[in-house]
Amino acid sequence: MTDIHPPLLLIDTSTRVCSVAVAAAGTIISQRVSHVGNSHAANIGVFVQEVLTEATGLGAKPSIVALSSGPGSYTGLRIGSSIAKGLCFGLGIPLVSVPTLELIAEAARPLSQPDWLICPMIDARRMEVYTALFDSKGKALTDTLPLVIDHNSFSEELQRRNILFVGDGAEKCRPFLSHPNALFSENVIHPLALYMLHPALSRIETSSYEDVAYWEPFYLKEFVATVAKNKVIPRTQTT
């Protein structure tokens, strides 16, 4: 008989926040979180080692790795993917992935009402966000899309019901989403590893495991390298 609440190692590096947790018997027993941006590479290995040590001391040895799959930071997703796949290969354990927007929607569920929609948003430069619509139970109703927000965004949906906008991309959209049915959380909801627990368990119940060898994060957009203006070498003038 399959254990429906096996010990899990949960990892999220999809945004500027880096978080790792261990769950056992359906409860978070250890976690680490850093809100310092651009520190994932320095923190992730230490965090994993610390939570695994604490979990072992409590008699819990994770048998599955759960990872947020994106979209989000290209670099962050690569870092999380590398360590998660390395652990799966090294320990011979399976991998499940959970979309990053689903983590945010899961965190927002206690703030929602049964007839509301939840719209998690990840900041994607200027007025663009990565977003999708979820029902109040955390079920995705639309595909994840990159969306440039303007005064007409979500106009049809807002005519019909309340939408709770959450995530690190929501606040910048507030001036454009002025309909009375547009609601915003007071605090920014980040996609932390602990919010992955129930979505991960639901995938484990249906044996929705990833092929570790071929799995890749959901980047949504191709990586584009940019060069800071002060790093550009001026063109030599010729006569």
TrEMBL record:
Entries under InterPro entries matching the protein: ATPase_NBD, Gcp-like_dom, T6A_TsaB
Gene3D superfamilies: 3.30.420.40
Keywords, alphabetical: Hydrolase, Protease
Biological process terms in GO annotation: proteolysis; tRNA threonylcarbamoyladenosine modification
CDD domains registered for this protein in UniProt: ASKHA_NBD_TsaB
Every Gcp-like domain range: 38-150
SUPFAM superfamilies documented for this protein: Actin-like ATPase domain
Protein name as it appears in the record: Probable glycoprotease
Organism of provenance: Porphyromonas gingivalis (strain ATCC 33277 / DSM 20709 / CIP 103683 / JCM 12257 / NCTC 11834 / 2561)
